[in-house]
Amino acid sequence: MKFSKGLYLPLVVCSVSFGALKQVESFTAESEAHTVKLKVPVFPESQKAVDDLVSSTLEQVAKNGDVVAALKASELSFDSIFGKLEASNIRISDAYGLLAIVANTSTNAELRQAADQGMNTLSKELIQFSYREDIYQVIKAYQALTPTLDSAKQLVLKDTLLGYQRLGMHLSAAKKERLKALKAKLSDVSQAFDEAIREMDSKGSFTEAELEGVPEEFLKQLKKKNGAYLVDFTRPSHRSVLLSNAKNEAVRKKTYIMRSAPVLLENGPRLTEMARLRTELATLLGYSTWADFK
Questions:
Q1: How would you write the pLDDT of the chain (294 residues) with one tens digit per residue?
Q2: Which of 3, 35, 109, 134 is 20 to 30 A (C-alpha) from 256?
C-alpha cells in the first residue's frame, strides 16, 4: 500500500494555511454577494451549554414531528410534511457539527467528554424518533394521494419511504424494538471506540531531513528535543500537514498508522462487537451482510 501525499485529509477540518487569515467580515461580504446569510456558530463551553444544546435540539425535533403527525388529510402537502422534517434535519446537523468540533478540538478533557456524550444522547434519542409510527403513517397517506410533484420532490418522497423500509418499519413490533436496541448499543460502542482514539496519547519525533517538504512555518510551531521535531499524532492539524506535505513516504505511513495504533488492543473487542451488532441488524432487515445492507 502506497501512502501518497494528500490522500488522507480529515473530512471536517479547515485547510491549513500559513498566510493571512480571513476575518469573519470578509466571508460575510462574500456571502451577501450571493444572497447567502452567514451566522457565526456559538460553541458550547460548559457541560450546561452542551446539555442545553442537546435538549433544545431534541425538543424542537419533537415539536416538528408532532406538527407533522397531527396533520389532517386536507392539510397534507409536500411542504407541510417535508418542510418540518427538513427543519429538524438542519437543526440536528447544526447541533452535531458544533458538538463534534468541541469533542475533537477542545483543550478541556471534561468538555470533550461532555460533547461526545451529547452526540451519543442525540443519536440514541433520534433512533427512537425515527421509528415514530404516526409520522410514517402520515407520509404513507400523502403518498397514497399520488401527488403531482417535480422530479426533485418525487425523489425526496421515494428516498424517505425507502429509508423507512431500511429502518424495518414494515416488520413486527418485536423486531422493531430489537432493531432500536441494537442501534442504541451500536451508538454506545461506536462512541467508546471514537473516544478511545481521540483521547489517546500518541506522539513521535522526526528529524529535519525526514520532514522535507513540510512548510517551514509549521516546523517553527513544533517543540524540539535532542534536535528532532516533536509531533502529536492526535492533533488533526499535525496529521494533515504531514500527510499532505512530507515527501518521505515512511513519515506519511507512520503518521497514518500512529493515528490509531496505540489503542488497537483496547478497541479490538469494540470492533468485534460493532461487527456483531451490524451483522444482526442486517439479518433482521433481510440482508445477508452489513455490506449488502449498506
A1: 343 333 333 333 344 444 455 666 777 777 777 777 777 789 999 999 999 999 999 999 999 999 999 999 999 999 999 999 999 999 999 999 999 999 988 989 899 999 999 999 999 999 999 999 999 999 999 999 999 999 999 999 999 999 999 999 999 999 999 999 999 999 999 999 988 877 777 788 999 999 999 999 999 999 999 999 999 887 778 888 999 999 999 999 998 888 767 677 788 999 999 999 999 999 999 999 999 998
A2: 109
Q: Which three cell numbers stand for residue 87?
A: 427543519
Tell the residue number behind the cell numbers 460493532, with chain if given: 274
pTM comes to: 0.71
Residues near 236 by beta carbon (within 8 Å), at least 6 away in sequence: 10, 13, 104, 105
User: Taking Cα atoms as reference points, which of 127, 108, 59, 47 lies closest to residue 88?
Assistant: 59
- Quick one: cell of 51? 446539555
Would you state the cell numbers that stand for residue 160, as one nine-digit string? 424517505
Q: For residue 219, is it left (φ>0), alpha (ψ between -120 and 50) or beta?
A: alpha
Residue 185's nearest CA partner among 277, 265, 93 is 277
Q: Residue-wise over 230-256: b if at least 16 C-beta within 10 A, else e? A: ebebbebebbbbbbbbbebeebbebbb
| Residue keyed to cell 450571493 | 34
Q: Hey, what's the cell of 98?
A: 458544533
